[in-house]
Protein: Multicopper oxidase domain-containing protein
Organism: Plantactinospora alkalitolerans
Amino acid sequence: MLPPPGDRPDPRPASPARLLGTSAGRAVLVAAVLAVTLVGAGGLALAGGTTARPAERTVEAAPEARSAERPAGCVTPDRRLDLYAVELPKDPVTGQVRLGYGLTPQTASYPGPTMEMIEGECLAITLYNQVTASTLEQLRTDPAHPVGVSLHVHGVKYTQTSDGTVHSASFVPPGGSRTYIWYAKPRTATSPGTAGYWWYHDHVVGGPHGTQGLRSGLFGGLVVRRQGDSRPDRTYVTAFGDRQTINLRRSAEADTCDPVNPQPGPTCLVAKIGERVEFIVIGLGDDMHTFHVHGHSWADTRTGVVEGSNRALVDSIPVIDNKTLGPGDTFGVQIVAGDSVGPGHWMLHCHMQFHSDLGMSTTLHVLDENGQMPPHAGGHSPTPPAQGAPAPAGAHTNHR
Amino acid sequence: MLPPPGDRPDPRPASPARLLGTSAGRAVLVAAVLAVTLVGAGGLALAGGTTARPAERTVEAAPEARSAERPAGCVTPDRRLDLYAVELPKDPVTGQVRLGYGLTPQTASYPGPTMEMIEGECLAITLYNQVTASTLEQLRTDPAHPVGVSLHVHGVKYTQTSDGTVHSASFVPPGGSRTYIWYAKPRTATSPGTAGYWWYHDHVVGGPHGTQGLRSGLFGGLVVRRQGDSRPDRTYVTAFGDRQTINLRRSAEADTCDPVNPQPGPTCLVAKIGERVEFIVIGLGDDMHTFHVHGHSWADTRTGVVEGSNRALVDSIPVIDNKTLGPGDTFGVQIVAGDSVGPGHWMLHCHMQFHSDLGMSTTLHVLDENGQMPPHAGGHSPTPPAQGAPAPAGAHTNHR
Amino acid sequence: MLPPPGDRPDPRPASPARLLGTSAGRAVLVAAVLAVTLVGAGGLALAGGTTARPAERTVEAAPEARSAERPAGCVTPDRRLDLYAVELPKDPVTGQVRLGYGLTPQTASYPGPTMEMIEGECLAITLYNQVTASTLEQLRTDPAHPVGVSLHVHGVKYTQTSDGTVHSASFVPPGGSRTYIWYAKPRTATSPGTAGYWWYHDHVVGGPHGTQGLRSGLFGGLVVRRQGDSRPDRTYVTAFGDRQTINLRRSAEADTCDPVNPQPGPTCLVAKIGERVEFIVIGLGDDMHTFHVHGHSWADTRTGVVEGSNRALVDSIPVIDNKTLGPGDTFGVQIVAGDSVGPGHWMLHCHMQFHSDLGMSTTLHVLDENGQMPPHAGGHSPTPPAQGAPAPAGAHTNHR
């Protein structure tokens, strides 16, 4: 069911950053309880291929970069991307405006495409604002607030020109474009580096903190790797937002896996036993949440794993299976799917009971070595989990 | 007042896990502001004794274990326990249903008995559901939700058969029993291990997340130790739940110590100066809380202590005296009672002001070297703390 | 604009603790969105000078210290300070009572003066309660609750006589005084030490947890340094409280910098590029918050920096730019202003969207090497940030 490991691209440890999530970009009507973006083998293959980079352009061909200052250490961008902010179909239940970022206008989604960088890399992203002034005006309450969309990023380095804020005038009016430069500064003796699990988001829509942009879906995950970091086989983004926005829905759409033939996707978390699965966990909105996975745990470190020869210090690091996060917090963990616990339907949910009861819960489906879910995996009921009902046709398709 | 150190059992660092909390199991009407379970010298002695293990059975005599799959690494359970889920007397103030786990039906309590394991051990626990179908039906709102009780655990390894969830059919209907297998996987070069402070809880009562089971009291603490870990002299469980459940009560019952002759118990936290006191801190429910102790602090590590020869790294570890936790979070700390600060009535409370003002506060009573509270310890008022009123007769007795 | 580095005092790494914040003490009408106390070069110079220590007295001249017990390790106080609790002008908007601590009655402020100690030091602070009984009675709801003000501290060691609580009778009635002794116990093989970012606060006003004292402003920051710790060039305190108290104001007063000639102050966070800026971050009240700074990040360690030769362990430490904190939590970070990102107006805000939208946001103004804000720093709009309106005359002056 899953692509065989041989289909996965080379890990390319020293290569420049790659943009992930292309396949996930088609997930528009996510309406997920946990907003999950799949960035798995397929996404990597597509983004990393030599012929399928519609959004990547050569460095030389980007004159607009001259308008952006570079953070110290970034001599010239190593790579360029285009990013589009577009309006998606309104939420079918609430009628709320939905916005998304995409590598192309047609593939915009929320969360947006997951970005990947490696320490040392400098990335130029040109944001095209295709959201109409009318929509953006509708999302603000203060008529003096400017109309635009922006790109603000956590963790990596950027100058005021790439801050994505109103006061720095680093946003994009409707119909315009602007190039943002991110620098994944490496760790040195005096710098802690920028490797980590981060996110990017609008900081302008609706007000000076971009609250309506975030609420509408203008955010995505970013992972910055360090030379030597373990590469995951699959990457999923799980975003914990407010009941008003993305996450707290009472529907089957938290998990749209086909129980017979599960295909990895934004709302279908699947892995084969033994695969290294990476979660990028994002908190946003107004509320606290927790990230809990059944049967799996991780070290509370930068990546969820820990190595080291200093036994006493290694032994001092907490191992956890539940982690609290507030808005703006991001972290990532790498776990080995089914390690010691076998295949099965492993719940992944917020442990705030009223959140999980309202639907902030999904499942990590761990398949056996043959890519199959054992009929009675671990002795569980042969019926699929309650959330596992097939998604309505087209739920993963951009109808825009 | 406290048993002399000589009465404590051997630390037995390499022994298999032992179940703690037997003496605490009698505390049914806890109604505590901080739900506190004492697992001190007495509890250890009882559980570890050779003649007083009513709930432990030999490995060979447990055919029901054949129905449970074992997580990888657990060849066969090293030890077996029985656990009973029973209905306790209703909350005298709110009339709310109270449920508890116990090593015997007569000693069920909430929180339930504190479990202790050591890395490498595999434990089989047979849960007997003695809660009536009528009570369980009363706690659900969805008539399609099954009626049962389960055992879900954090941190250690288990297969889907021991997940304790509805979708895996690993729960126990009224009158039934089921064996759950927990494996405390050791730390290796590729595994972070399972040593830590965890909890176990129902995941079925009322709904697929066991919210009503948790709310009623079906949870308890679990500590998994690593070879070489320091052993505490006393272990207390402090659970921070919602105002609706356990913790936010405005009564004297947060601290039922007899001020003249304090006896350690679930709502009487006592230690002699110099003793190593361990707290297992559990967050549950819907809200955030903080764990704060006056006069004492700890390193923010797996155990609250830190050792190591790498000075720079050791110096990098934060030392704290207040730690935020969300539902599902657990941590543990070991502190030396009265270290540098002497005997006295040291407050232990949630630092959210409206929580502490509503009663989420208790006291760690640190006695002097003679096991006495100095009449004017540290110059304090000779009157006992406000919360220190004697408990109503029988408050610690299971009236069921 | 900023004092040249040459005006800064010697770092004096081995000197005893010094009290900071004298200049900040004049900020009474802070009314800040983020309650910020500047403790910069000026404050250090004043507190560290040999002729300008009005609040420091010789050890020999303090007979009242005899009434206070000393924590183990404190042979005799190394230094003495006076601290005054006074009533400040009522909040001009809400009419709420405002209280503050000050090194002199005239310089009381909220937050109070920032304290600095070094591990090994023992400090005696005599608190004079100049708040009237009438005001204190007004702040309590329970007529049986005593009337007084106290000093409770986190992180350092103290006996019950310095606990600042009701039950220990360690508070100060109106018109009275009391000496509290704090001991910054050093790190040893068996003690984690007390170096860290802490706070002190009242624990008596209004009720046994001092909720009304905290709400009114009776708190301040404390940093305990370890021998060898990096010294910052500037220290700011940012406190995150409830909407009812300090932080959530919708006004220009979150940032009162003069955009032409910014002067560091409690509500004007300024640094020159390359300066090491230290934030002491305090959570108080009832709510959760997050501390987020644009363009800057730090290691999640005791000081925000990390050193060490064990590469694997150093690489395991998370680097973050957003940190959640609950009431009672404190942490500190040292960042290099503008490192890699250049000068500019860098936002500092709570990432809970409804908090930042209500005004829980300010700006770290990073000047260039000449102490100037480039006219178009980083390409930003030449207009000052929205919050940058000049403060009303006298906003930094104690009108009392």
